[in-house]
User: What shape does this take?
Amino acid sequence: MKEIYKNIFTLFLSLIFITVFIRNNELIDSLTAKLFYFYFLSIVVLGISTISLFFIRKKISISLNILDLVILLFYAYNSVRLLFTEFSAFDNDKFITLTLLICYYFIFKHLVSYQGKYIFPLIVLLCIFLVVGLLQSLIGLFQVYNLFGYSSPFYSLTGSFDNLAPYSGFIVTFLPFAFGLYFLTSSNSTENKILKYLGLVLFCSGILVLPLTKIRGDWLASIGGLLVIINYRYRLNEKFCLLKLNSAVKILIIGSILASLVFSIYGLYKIRPASAYGRILMWKVTANMIEENPMFGIGFNKYGDFYNNYQSAYFSAEKRDDYEKYVADNVDYAHNDLLEIFAELGVIGFGLFILILFYTLKTDKVKYLEEVRNNHIIVAAKASIICIVISSQFTFSLQILATMLNFVFLLSLISAFDEKKYFTLIEINPFRQKVIGIIGLFLLVILTIHTTESYKANKKWQNAKLLSGYMKYDSAIKYYSESYEKLNSNGRFLLNYGGTLSLAGNYNKAIEILKEAQNYNSSNNLYILLGNSYTELKRFDEAEKSYLKAISSIPNRLYPKYKLTQMFLKSDRLNDAKELALDICKSNAKVPSTAENEIKAEMKKILEL
Assistant: This one.
């Protein structure tokens, strides 16, 4: 009977992998829809797990290995860092997500741990995991050939995301794992055959769609993961060391391999040099953030909130290269997750995350396939972890919920089959289990209330945004004001709210909301809207400062320069207006458009005054 309950729970738990498919037009974007599905399902999963504590009549021993301890230490540090981060609270979505992912790590690990012949949870979770990857690959292929799939106005290939980069980062997490299952799994049982050939189909479909994404970092990541599998299967590193070659020849071979790698990376860079140069700019600015806050970082989940302020300071400090100005843009992610972790959490948080990776990938001795049960799963999972880490050095894989869920699942597989020493920390008797259950249910009630209210507020936000687009500002403002109490720490929400107030002519209230948004958002649009509102109130000095901040954060944008020129005319500063108009006429927008031509035509008229 116990196994039947566990089987049912496993089937229900596997629904968490469906998160990636969720979309809801009633919400602001697909990532928000995925987040709420994840929240609501997690409440049910954790509710079942918590209630089960009331029916256990024996002591529970909690045993952890080193990887478990480091993960918990990383979580504890994040909690403390959040506590001391200004303008942040524990109802922060990123912190709630991190908390739930930690819970899933231990739930996955408990279910898939070796239990004799009872392997149903492991097989079900692996099969659902692989099927999800396969379906996403097929959706991508269907989109490319206009057969079927989710549609995006900006990209032809997105899977069930709104953007190409998260889709590519999601697909690449499966490739080494699927390849490893096919390449390393024996066909000595029905379960193994299912995993082996499901892995083959997924790998073939994924390898067809990945080149179409044109995300070069993910190409490198997939190659790195596949090489780990091949090296393990054929023991290439051991054979190379055993070759009877002198040191000079070995150095020559290694040098040739490294040179080929460098030339390959350079070739990938030349495909889209502006994109690569843009990342270098982001990393330079991020390095400045780290330099200012090396020990503890700028704060939990504060990278996107502050980045543009640092970019503005970077361009204001001295004359910069014109190409750097050309590639600058609004930035929410560092496109290098290790750097972003360092910037947000400092050397302590960065060091703890590196320890997680170290103990995840640490191998005392390469073992033969038949030596350890499920060793093929361990190797395949480690290869995919390496793949995710490589991918995350060029994109923002670890900031995407669906990809992080894959990352956590793979970590749990590695930890579950780890033969290293476990530490029994504590034994919990039935009475204490019930106390823990009561506390857990209380926290879940709080999470349920928060999630329900937040979901309603997000729906109103989407309604407000749509109404604002139709210039029904009064109705939009009503929805914004109703959502404000729940979303007043969301930088995007405050930007939208303040912008609508400004368009409606409520400039004083707009300034109030937009200044509040500065604690959670550093977008150049925020400062343009502030400048517009100050200009309408004839507070020209404050308007000028706002426009200059918008200009310095993204120097290639013509619009803030255009708005500043208009402000100069309104404040009777014709010479300043002409000087800036001349600069605009000599400038080229990053993306040519009709708006650019219209702005330049208007600037030429100003020069004739």
Residues 366-372 have pLDDT under 50 and may be disordered. Residues 185 and 196 are 6 Å apart (CA to CA). The longest helix spans residues 430-469.
